[in-house]
From TrEMBL:
It comes from the Eukaryota. InterPro entries: Mab-21_HhH/H2TH-like (IPR046906), MAB21L/cGLR (IPR024810). This is Mab-21-like HhH/H2TH-like domain-containing protein. Gene3D superfamilies: 1.10.1410.40. The lineage of its organism: Eukaryota, Metazoa, Ecdysozoa, Arthropoda, Hexapoda. Residues 440-529 form the Mab-21-like HhH/H2TH-like domain.
Length: 801
């Protein structure tokens, strides 16, 4: 997971036991970057309530329990908070800045990377199906907006004249199109350079009407044709870098009123005579537009393959195999070192100021949800409004126009070649850097499901990754706070339910321009297919998620340990037989009847160790006998075993429950160990806390008392190691703590002093918070509470509990 949450919890430590931090939100503090600080307190009753919730899901809704823990244990980032905070304070990624230095020297262009926060995902995760001869590739295609600096958008005609050495050399002004989300670029008249432009001709072939073709065929033909990527038609003619070819411009006759030819001092008779002499041609005016279709053809067939592609760092093989649709070029670069295909989307664009007229609803959106702090009365929204709010910052950013006109499902848009689509790459990067880790993980899992089940069928014709991004912006605005890391599976199922509703109604508003429906010109059959996939996932989520997540591989062995999806699926699909599921459990149950109960705890533990050793001998004999009759397949592939249609029971038998609990306990312990090295100590404590919750449930199963005791010892040992590392890191910092803590004092010493009343709780809490910031909680033991004095330590939790 690689992140620390902005919540804090308190822990209680009693003599002989340590209470696990539990969740209870008591306040919310707003800040300008869209994150919130949560202050939580813990007590014994709340810990038990949380455990009871987990037990209820495990016993009554096992698929939800399994999904919550799978998603909690799957990692995409080493340290998400570190990445997001870095991106919040920079206007461009280092790679983007370095690339622009080259492009501005060689080409009259610059680039924008909107998916900077996805870069680390591509470094840590690779996607590979189980199909034969399949190759590994990045989960997310990298988008690169290439901005042409030859075209400048101005607000009015009164502009200074540019000389031949100045840039840009084409000045245009924005003209509204009929459809929201699209604009036209019209040449500025004053001091305009001479441009050769073709006459505007409505050279389209109307498609057969409803009398000869059914609606489904009618609406699919042109859209499917336009959205099918085609190879580039490379033109080797050398073009000047300081000009655009005439195919990029279109001359059109438009109606006008020649009032400008009159002098304001002319009398009425002169004016009447002037109007009587006017002809039809006087009411027409020749104007020049930048042709989006011609611009895209020039970019994809001339500029990109001959020079720009190499300047962006692509190989000749990648450029030669590139394909394009209106507004995008698709290509893949093979990385020899990692043996991974890296997909890219190259998007030509023209920079424009933030389109206030088109985004007025976004800026002043009335239905934007507001969270009210019940303690302080403060209100909060995402994105934040007001002076220096997130919306105000985005309005100061630029947008871009992409050479892609509006395409109708029925009929032809006569002005499609003159229209440009509005995109907001910088605003998207800004918003994604301010999403929480749980929200970003939810987006990445949606992208994984899309890449596994939808994209192979619909390609560019149906639901696209940019639709999922837009959908997630709406979900974050709807409820920015309620995204608990430990219950992300429950939240994600609700998100998917909302998404399939959007697909059913065929409506997905553009987040910045609500009047634009992104699903409007997508054929229904592709939306229906995506809806069916998500409905199937909602009906039987665990197999679908296991199959999709099994296609994600960690790129490095130094990353977090992966979830053992193979073992988990084998447990779920196996019949309720102890010997078939896990032979060692069968012997545990047999020996359980021979256990004795001793009043002396030492004698009881000694007896349990004896039984464990005896069980181990029996297990080894049974396994040795089983191997003689088994012919295991070393080339096991999950694709041959996973059937997404196999239902998962809501209630599991005892043996399956025990096995699944052990799988997740072991996994969370391993993630906790790795987190203390890769991320933060708070993150490590978060996973140890979840492991101890599950271990408490395991302990309540009478046959697993000894195993639960062993796991508890491991967790306690790791927590102690983390505390020592935390103290050393604080003691080695440049700024000494305001209230020093003597190295000779241990937590046991503090307990003894608490018993005698020689330490005041408030002073100890202040000393601990000032001296050991972000220190981890004490050892965890969910036994009976002891009515003794407790020490409350302020800590940072890792999830919204």
């Amino acid at each position: 997971m690689g992140t620390t949450c902005s919540k804090k919890y308190n822990s209680e430590k009693n003599s002989g036991e340590i209470i696990l931090p539990g969740p209870k939100m008591v306040s919310v503090t707003d800040n300008s970057d869209g994150n919130s600080d949560f202050i939580t307190e813990s007590n014994y009753k709340e810990d038990l309530m949380h455990i009871q919730t987990i037990k209820y899901e495990l016993n009554k809704h096992a698929p939800v329990f399994i999904l919550n823990n799978i998603l909690m244990g799957f990692q995409f980032y080493t340290d998400f908070d570190k990445v997001s905070k870095r991106l919040q304070h920079i206007s461009a990624s280092p790679q983007e800045t370095e690339m622009n230095k080259t492009l501005l020297k060689v080409e009259t262009m610059e680039c924008t990377y909107p998916d900077a926060i996805m870069d680390e995902v591509n470094q840590n995760i690779i996607f590979r199906t189980m199909q034969e001869f399949s190759s590994a590739e990045n989960l997310v295609a990298k988008r690169i907006y290439v901005i042409n600096d030859l075209i400048e958008v101005v607000k009015c005609d009164e502009i200074p004249q540019y000389t031949s050495i100045d840039k840009p050399c084409y000045q245009v002004k924005i003209q509204e199109a009929k459809r929201k989300g699209f604009l036209k670029l019209k040449q500025v008249e004053n001091n305009a350079p001479i441009i050769k432009a073709k006459e505007y001709v409505e050279n389209y072939e109307p498609l057969p009407g409803p009398s000869t073709r059914c609606d489904s065929e009618y609406e699919y033909s042109m859209i499917t044709e336009m959205r099918t990527p085609k190879p580039l038609e490379i033109v080797n003619e050398v073009e000047r870098r300081d000009t655009l070819p005439e195919t990029c411009f279109t001359q059109k006759n438009e109606k006008c009123f020649p009032i400008e030819s009159l002098d304001s001092e002319d009398d009425e008779e002169v004016r009447q005579e002037f109007f009587r002499n006017l002809t039809d041609e006087d009411f027409m005016k020749k104007v020049i537009y930048v042709n989006s279709h011609g611009f895209m053809k020039y970019f994809q067939n001339g500029l990109f393959p001959t020079s720009l592609g190499k300047s962006l760092g692509f190989s000749e093989d990648a450029i030669a195999t590139a394909k394009a649709i209106p507004g995008k070029i698709f290509l893949q670069e093979f990385d020899i070192e990692s043996n991974v295909n890296k997909p890219f989307q190259i998007i030509p664009a023209v920079t424009i100021p933030w389109p206030d007229e088109q985004t007025i609803e976004f800026v002043y959106r009335d239905e934007r949800n507001t969270i009210i702090n019940t303690r302080t009365g403060a209100t909060y929204q995402w994105p934040t409004t007001g002076h220096n709010g997130m919306i105000e910052e985005m309005r100061n950013m630029t947008a871009v126009l992409v050479p892609k006109g509006y395409t109708k499902k029925k009929g032809v848009n006569k002005d499609a070649y003159l229209e440009w689509e509005i995109n907001f790459p910088k605003a998207e990067r800004y918003l994604e850097a301010r999403m929480s880790h749980a929200q970003m993980k939810c987006l990445l899992i949606l992208l994984t499901l899309h890449k596994t089940y939808i994209d192979p069928v619909t390609k560019q014709n149906g639901l696209l990754p940019e639709h999922l991004r837009t959908f997630m912006y709406w979900q974050c605005e709807k409820d920015f706070r309620n995204w608990p890391e430990h219950r992300l599976g429950t939240k994600l199922l609700r998100v998917i339910k909302d998404l399939q509703q959007n697909l059913f109604f065929g409506v997905l508003p553009n987040y910045f321009i609500k009047e634009q429906n992104l699903f409007e010109n997508i054929p229904k059959k592709y939306l229906n297919y995506a809806q069916k996939v998500f409905l199937d996932i909602l009906g039987n989520p665990v197999p679908y998620f296991i199959k999709a997540l099994s296609y994600l591989r960690y790129a490095s062995g130094k990353f977090y340990p992966p979830v053992n999806l193979k073992e988990l699926y084998e447990v779920l699909r196996t019949k309720s037989s102890p010997a078939l599921l896990n032979p060692q459990l069968a012997y545990s149950i047999v020996t359980q009847r021979k256990r004795r109960i001793y009043k002396n705890p030492e004698s009881q533990i000694k007896h349990l160790k004896y039984l464990k050793k005896k069980e181990q001998i029996l297990r080894e004999r049974h396994l040795q006998k089983s191997k003689q009759n088994e012919n295991e397949d070393n080339d096991y592939q999950m694709k041959n075993d996973i059937n997404v249609n196999d239902p998962i029971d809501n209630e599991l038998d005892t043996i399956k429950t025990i096995t699944i609990l052990e799988i997740f306990i072991k996994h969370f312990i391993e993630i906790g160990k790795k987190s203390s090295n890769l991320a933060t100590y708070d993150q490590a404590m978060f996973y140890f806390k979840q492991a101890m919750y599950l271990n408490k449930i395991l302990e309540e199963t009478s046959s697993m008392i000894l195993e639960a005791h062993d796991y508890q010892q491991i967790i306690a040992k790791e927590e102690s190691r983390i505390r020592r590392k935390t103290i050393r890191s604080v003691s080695s910092s440049e700024e000494p703590p305001p209230t020093p803590i003597r190295k000779s004092i241990t937590f046991n010493d503090i307990n003894q002093q608490l018993k005698s009343g020689s330490i005041r709780l408030k002073n100890l809490e202040n000393s601990f918070n000032n001296g050991i910031q972000n220190a981890s909680a004490q050892k965890i033991n969910l036994g009976k509470p002891v009515r003794k004095k407790t020490v409350v330590f302020a800590e940072s939790d890792h999830s919204q509990m």
